[in-house]
C-alpha cells in the first residue's frame, strides 16, 4: 500500500471515529457531556454538530446560568452555516431575553447583518432589504456610540441605493412600455419623483432626474394638440431644473436636443394661435 493510500485510510478512520463518537454522545443522553462537546465542536467550527447539540441544550438549560451562552452560540452556528433567516430569529430572541448581556449589542447588529445577507438583487423582492434597514436603524438608535455605527451607516446607504435602483428599474420599465395599455411615461415620472423624494441623496439621482425630463418630453410629443404646449412648457421647465443641477451631465447633449425640440413645439403652437 502506498503512503498516500495509508494516509487516506487513516483520515477516513478518523472521520468514522468522529461520527461514531458523536452518534454515541447523542444516544447516551448524558447531558453533562453535551455542553462541553458542543463547545468543542463550536471551537473547531463544526457548526452542524455544535448547533444540533445547542438546540437540544436550549430546552435542557432553560432557567439556568448556561442558557445565555447556549442561545448566543446557537444563533452564531446558524449564522455561520448561512441560515440567515433562523439566525436573525434567534439573535432577536437573544436580545429580547438577555438585553443586559455583553453580547446584546453584537446580536442586535447581527440581526440587521443577517437580513443584509438575505437582501436580493435589485430586480427581485426587497422585503429583506427593508428589514435590514429597519434593524440597522434600530441598532443605531440603541447604540449611538457603538464602534459599528459607521459600518452600519454605510450598509444602510448601500441598501437604500439598492431600493432606489429597483425603483429606477421600475421607472425605466414604465418608460420602455411607452404607450402600451396607457400612458406609462406619466407612471415613469411618478415613480422617479417618488424615489427622489424618499432618497434625495441617492447616487442614481442624475439618472432618475433625466428620466423625468425625457418622459415629460415624450408625453408632450405624443399629446393631443390641446395639451401639447402645456406639456412642452413643463418639459422645458424640467430641462432647466436638470441643467442647473447637472451642468456637466453625461446626458447634456440629449437634454439640449430635448430643449430645442420642446421649444419648437411651443413656438409652433404660438404661431398657430396668431
Describe, in plain words, how this protein is organized in 3D.
- 79% of the residues lie in helices and 0% in strands.
- By secondary structure, the chain is mostly helical.
- Among the domains are: 68 residues, Serine Threonine Protein Phosphatase 5, Tetratricopeptide repeat; 56 residues.
- Helix 5 runs antiparallel to helix 6, helix 7 runs antiparallel to helix 8 and helix 11 runs antiparallel to helix 12.
- It starts with a helix and ends with a helix.
**Strand and helix order:** HHHHHHHHHHHH
Top-tier CATH class of the domain at 31-98: Mainly Alpha
Give the overall average pLDDT.
88
**Structural class designation:** mainly alpha
What keywords describe this structure?
274 residues, mainly alpha, Serine Threonine Protein Phosphatase 5, Tetratricopeptide repeat
Summarize the structure.
The protein is mainly alpha-helical and 274 residues long.
Write the layout of secondary structure elements.
Layout: H1 3-28, H2 31-43, H3 47-60, H4 67-80, H5 84-97, H6 104-118, H7 127-142, H8 149-177, H9 184-198, H10 205-221, H11 225-245, H12 252-273
Helix pairs in contact: 2-3, 3-4, 4-5, 5-6, 6-7, 7-8, 8-9, 8-10, 9-10, 10-11, 10-12, 11-12
